């Protein structure tokens, strides 16, 4: 057992998700547990299959989706060469995993907590909801472009109050932004907590509303990563003083009023 | 096998060092291996004053390598000596400082600060960073400047060995190597990154905000080997091989052409325990191929008769 390590572990299971809607795009990949002492929702891992040739030199970062004493699962959407090859892994294949990396989302069991997910940004919230002592205080809002079946929405909605909105047109987008504004305002007024993960424009919207309504909000940034351990300085963003800080070690979760992106 | 190496005033447990800018200040990698196991750690580039570095995006993955234009983001030498060096296990592993400056006087001043630190085993002079518009390129490509900077550092370095890190972005790297040797360098390390670029036809933008960036990783190994080969034959100071090392076999290739030691850069991103594993793998591979000792193997490349 260790706090943080790099281990070769075997792939236990590759489960396609939402394939009727989007063939060959979303997968849950379950790995042997790398014997960490603990992990917290919002943290991530770097994954690089052991057999990868050297044409791709970096591992790929994934939010921790869920884990137990024997396994660790990540949820992936194919979006490039690296994720395509990870999706093609088979049980028994070996991958190097290093983690758990980065900080985690705030968890205040008694505070009304709003989870704002944009698409694949829903991944860390599966673990968040599982770990939350009072799921009754948690609510999920998912904004998505691909069909709902592709996301672990039902799994999360089984435990917490959840809504979702599909974006197909620019009218949909405006409706989503309005809904987010309304929700963030409501949680600001209740003194609750707003936690967001999604694409950059989505996070900027969260940041803007959080500022406007004075909400306590955290955003989880998903920058390109070379190392995941704070060494390459390729993932930086700016803190509120305008200094470059590594997203992989100082984040990925930042208070919305203390980061520029 | 005895893996200990001694050259240019440096004593290393083994020939495996980590390259500047790819291993942070070392502590970032402590969860993944025992830092004391390494031959040496070259800390990330340091300047006199803190630097914010270049805008994002700063890195891009390319076939068998990567481009970077970090721009020597660092907290400044003062922060390094007061806040970081004391927590590094420098009594048990050689910690080398990597110096970055924009003129000879500033290089000298930096060397003066670091020379006073017991925890610094040697100074590596970065005359070759191609990323920063105002400095690196000019030094690294002009032999006269290389000599002048080397002298300035040497003069203030006290008893610390001075290693000059050479850029491959020159017509004849042996001329630069001789300039550094003439300037009083105790050793040379090479190569730094190759100047490169990547663009995106969909967004019609460069993939790196600085536009021009430094290429590293397995893609550059043949260039690096060629440079080391040429330099070991043109100067009589020791050479440390850097560039694209991603296996024990790669590392031994550099020793075969005559390097005293190697530095591992981009491969630290393949997995964070890479350098630690390499120490054992190199020793095992030397035995496997029937090398009698490091000394016997080093520089034993059989060249065709001219
Ligand atoms: C992200 C990154 C940052 C680097 N920063 C520095 C630096 O600060 N100073 C320096 O002398 N070299 C720097 N380098 C160059 C490396 O030390 C090394 O010379 C080069 O990457 C070639 O080795 P490799 O192919 O094993 O990576 C950097 C390289 C990378 C990839
Ligand atoms: S990914 Fe390398 S510093 Fe963050």
What does this structure look like?
The complex is a heterodimer of chains A (261) and B (306). Chain A is an alpha+beta fold and 261 residues long. Chain A folds into two domains: 3-101, Translation factors (Elongation Factor Tu (Ef-tu), domain 3), CATH 2.40.30; 113-258, Nucleotide-binding domain of ferredoxin-NADP reductase (FNR) module (Rossmann fold, 3-Layer(aba) Sandwich). Chain A has helices at residues 81-87, 123-131, 153-157, 170-189, 200-213, 247-250, and strands at residues 5-17, 26-32, 44-49, 60-63, 66-67, 71-77, 94-101, 113-118, 138-144, 161-166, 193-197, 216-220, 236-239, 244-246, 253-255, 259-260. In chain A, α4 runs parallel beside α5. Chain B has a single domain (5-53, 71-194, 216-297), classed as TIM Barrel, CATH 3.20.20. Chain B contains ten helices and 16 strands. An eight-stranded parallel barrel of chain B has the order 3-4-7-8-9-10-15-16, surrounded by six helices. Chain B has a four-stranded antiparallel beta sheet with strand order 5-6-14-11, with no helix packed on it. Residues 130-136 of chain B have low confidence and may be disordered. Chains A and B meet through loops of A and β6 and α8 of B. Bound molecules: flavin mononucleotide and FE2/S2 (inorganic) cluster. FE2/S2 (inorganic) cluster binds next to loops of chain A.
């Amino acid at each position: 057992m260790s706090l943080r390590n790099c281990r070769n572990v075997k792939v236990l299971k590759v489960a396609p998700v939402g394939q009727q809607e989007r063939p060959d795009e979303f997968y849950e990949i379950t790995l042997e547990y790398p014997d960490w002492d603990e992990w917290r929702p919002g943290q991530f891992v770097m994954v690089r299959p052991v057999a990868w040739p050297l044409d791709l030199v970096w591992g790929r970062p994934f939010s921790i989706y869920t884990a137990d004493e024997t396994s660790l699962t990540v949820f992936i959407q194919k979006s490039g060469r690296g994720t395509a090859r990870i999706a093609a892994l088979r049980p028994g294949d070996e991958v190097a995993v290093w983690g758990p990396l980065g900080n985690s989302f705030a968890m205040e069991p008694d505070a009304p907590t709003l989870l704002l997910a944009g698409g694949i940004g829903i991944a860390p919230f599966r673990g968040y909801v599982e770990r939350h002592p009072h799921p009754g205080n948690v609510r999920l809002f998912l904004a998505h472009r691909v069909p709902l079946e592709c996301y672990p929405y039902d799994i999360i909605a089984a435990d917490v109050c959840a809504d979702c909105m599909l974006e197909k047109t620019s009218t949909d987008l405006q409706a989503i932004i309005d809904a987010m504004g309304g929700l963030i305002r409501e949680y600001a007024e209740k003194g609750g907590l707003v936690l967001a993960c999604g694409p950059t424009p989505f996070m900027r919207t969260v940041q803007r509303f959080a500022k406007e309504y004075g909400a306590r909000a955290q955003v989880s940034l998903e920058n390109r990563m070379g190392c995941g351990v704070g060494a390459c300085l390729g993932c930086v963003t700016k803190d509120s003083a305008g200094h470059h800080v590594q997203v992989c070690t100082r984040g990925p979760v930042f208070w919305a009023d203390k980061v520029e992106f | 096998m005895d893996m200990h190496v001694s050259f240019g005033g440096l004593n290393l447990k083994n020939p495996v060092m980590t390259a500047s800018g790819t291993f942070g200040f070392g502590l970032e990698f402590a969860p993944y291996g025992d830092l004391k196991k390494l031959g040496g750690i070259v800390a990330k580039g340091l300047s006199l004053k803190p630097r914010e570095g270049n805008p994002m995006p700063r890195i891009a993955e390319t076939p068998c390598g990567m481009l970077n234009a970090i721009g020597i983001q660092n907290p400044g030498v003062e922060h390094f000596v007061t806040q970081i060096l004391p927590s590094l296990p420098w009594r048990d592993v050689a910690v080398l400082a990597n110096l970055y400056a924009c003129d000879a006087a500033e290089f000298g001043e930096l060397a003066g600060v670091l020379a006073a630190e017991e925890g610094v085993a040697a100074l590596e002079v970065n005359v070759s960073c191609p990323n920063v518009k105002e400095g690196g390129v000019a030094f690294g490509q002009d032999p006269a400047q290389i000599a002048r900077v080397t002298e300035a550092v040497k003069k203030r370095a006290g008893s610390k060995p001075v290693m000059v890190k050479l850029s491959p972005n020159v017509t004849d790297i042996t001329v630069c190597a001789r300039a550094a040797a003439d300037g009083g360098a105790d050793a040379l390390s090479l190569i730094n990154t190759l100047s490169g670029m990547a663009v995106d036809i969909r967004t019609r933008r460069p993939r790196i905000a600085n536009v021009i960036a430094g290429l590293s990783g397995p893609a550059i190994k043949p260039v690096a080997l060629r440079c080391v080969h040429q330099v070991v034959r043109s100067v009589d100071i020791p050479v440390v091989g850097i560039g694209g090392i991603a296996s024990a076999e790669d590392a031994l290739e550099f020793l075969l052409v005559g390097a005293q030691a190697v530095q591992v850069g981009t491969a630290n991103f393949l997995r964070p325990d890479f350098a630690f594993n390499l120490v054992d793998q190199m020793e095992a591979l030397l035995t496997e191929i029937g090398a009698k000792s490091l000394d016997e193997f080093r520089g034993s490349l059989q060249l065709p008769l001219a």
